[in-house]
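Case study.
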Amino acid sequence: MPRVAALSTPSAGAPLEPTTIETRALRDDDVRIDVKFAGICHSDIHQVREEWGSAIFPMVPGHEIAGVVSEVGSGVTRYKVGDRVGVGCMVDSCGECEFCKDGEEQFCAKGSVATYNGRGYDGEETKGGYSQQVVVSERFAVRIPEALELDVAAPLLCAGITTYTPLKRWDAGPGRKVAVIGLGGLGHMAVKIAAAMGAEVTVLSRTLAKKEDGLALGARSYVATQDADALAGLAKSFDVIINTVSANLPMDTYLRLLRPLGVLVNVGLPSDAWTVSPGSLVGGSRVLAGSNIGGIPATQEMLDFCAQHGIGSEIETISAEAVNEAYDRVVAGDVRYRFVIDTATIAVAVA
Ligand code: NAP
Ligand code: ZN
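After joint prediction, the assembly is written out as follows.
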């Protein structure tokens, strides 16, 4: 079985280091993808550091994968060698349940298979995109439109779809006021996509340090959440709030910013519980919702939407040796706005 260079962590919280891993021999419906770029999502850090409970080690993270098809299985119909493709957070699902049939594979009744830190239906541990190759079923690859460069497209495979899904579901568009909490990887994509959908966007960030960027990304206004008066002044302002923060927030404070019938959609995944007063929801008949990535058809739709609107991620490309420092910088909020690993720089002799 082909061995390829990858970045792997041996145990919870240990640094990522170059190694080689085995990729599976192609099944009939598999494509082998030469990974060119892999985005660093905060979810990678949560899992490497075992912040979501027990994880599978050694772990090769990465679910924002952009690359080029280098080999196809005998039954592959959708892709050919040379096609530009992406892979996101899932690599398999049953294909037969009501959710899979609806193209909502993330809700698969049998449980969808995570791109890494998961097990395939064959029991094999899955390995992600911080690697020079991945092998996945063609059903879980999406086409990257020519208008998008692979490096700025990679983060769309998680940050893009995770924000596109709730913005679409909750009707971000002309005449709707949308706030985005946290201007990081997901947050900056939410701003770009909501603005492209025609909504009036406000960024709620801890400080005004990134204000110029936020406005350039398409926000109409930008408020520091550390400024309690400014925040209170936004009471009953928004139809939709997307919370992308990776740490716990005082939810009642933010629920107050919703107009009647408004929705606060949480996509951030800190490990601690929140508290919410019932009155914050009942007053104004507000909705507190969650949202989990998006299905494969929606991921393709999102990529096509982004290509049409000239939307890529704002990235800082790094070499493999900078990955551990990049993790610390993401946790410190020092990223504008997504680190992307150039996988060609994973330096290790492949036997
Ligand atoms: P990120 O790039 O680190 O962005 C998170 C942002 O939250 C930061 O840029 C910062 O924005 C704000 N923030 C960070 N720490 C904070 C704190 N202590 N208090 C208040 N604000 C804080 O992370 P990401 O990759 O966008 O991911 C965000 C979260 O979404 C993670 O928990 C991740 O696991 C989760 N996620 C969920 C899904 C899903 O399907 N629902 C998919 C992917 C990721 P400011 O500096 O602007 O304040
Ligand atoms: Zn992610």
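Observations recorded in class. The chain has a mean pLDDT of 97. The longest helix spans residues 185-197. We will return to this complex in the next lecture.
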